[in-house]
Amino acid sequence: FVVVSVLGNRHQTPVAKRTVNPTFNPMDATFDFPIYLSLADRLGVAELVVWDKDMLKKDYLGEVAFPLEDWFRDGSAFAFEDENNRMVSRSLQSIRNSTPATGSIQLKLGFVQPPNTTSLMDFGKIYAELVKRTWPNLVSA
C-alpha cells in the first residue's frame, strides 16, 4: 500500500493482496489535498511511502519526496482531468540504512476546481504563484 502526505494531510491506498506490482483502482487511489496560497511557504513536497503488508507485519519498501517545483516539470497539463496530463514515474529511495529501496511508483498530479466555484481557474497561474511563494525571500530587510 502507499501512504500519501501533503501539508500534514495523509491518505493511503488499500492493501493490494498477492502482488509485488500493484495497480490501484483510481477510485481507491485518487486523493484530494486542499492547497491554499497562504500556506505555500509550508507546502514543501508531496511524500509517498510504499509498504508491503502481510499477515504479521508491514515492511518499508521505499519512498518518493516530490517537490512542488517538479510536479509539472515534464510539461504535463495542470488540470487533473486534462487528457494531456500524464502519469510520471519515480524510483523509490530509502532513508533507512538497513533497507535498500526497490521499485518505482507511477503517479498523476493535477488541480481540480474547488466545489461550488462558478468561474474557471487558471491552474498555470496558480501553480506559478505557489512555486514563487515556496522559495525563500532573498531580499534582506
Which tags fit this structure?
6 strands, four-stranded antiparallel sheet, alpha+beta, 141 residues, two-stranded antiparallel sheet
Summarize the SSE layout with pairings.
Blueprint: E1 2-6, E2 9-12, H1 26-29, E3 45-53, E4 58-67, E5 88-91, E6 104-107, H2 123-134
Antiparallel strand pairs: 1-2, 1-3, 3-4, 5-6
Describe this structure in words.
- With about 140 residues, the chain is an alpha+beta fold.
- The protein has 2 helices and 6 strands; from the N terminus they run ββαββββα.
- It has a 4-stranded antiparallel beta sheet, with no helix packed on it. A two-stranded antiparallel ribbon has the order 5-6.
- The longest helix is centred in the C-terminal third of the chain and has 12 residues.
- The mean pLDDT is about 85.
Largest sheet: 4 strands, antiparallel
Task: Please trace the helix and strand order, writing H or E for each element.
Answer: EEHEEEEH
Beta-strand segment tally: 6
Structural class: alpha+beta
Based on Cα principal axes, name the global outline: globular
Measured as a percent range, the helix fraction is 10-25%
Strand content: 25-35%
Radius of gyration: 17 Å
Mean pLDDT: 87
Strand numbers in spatial order across the main sheet: 2-1-3-4
Terminal Cα span = 47 Å
The low-pLDDT segments are none
Number of helices: 2
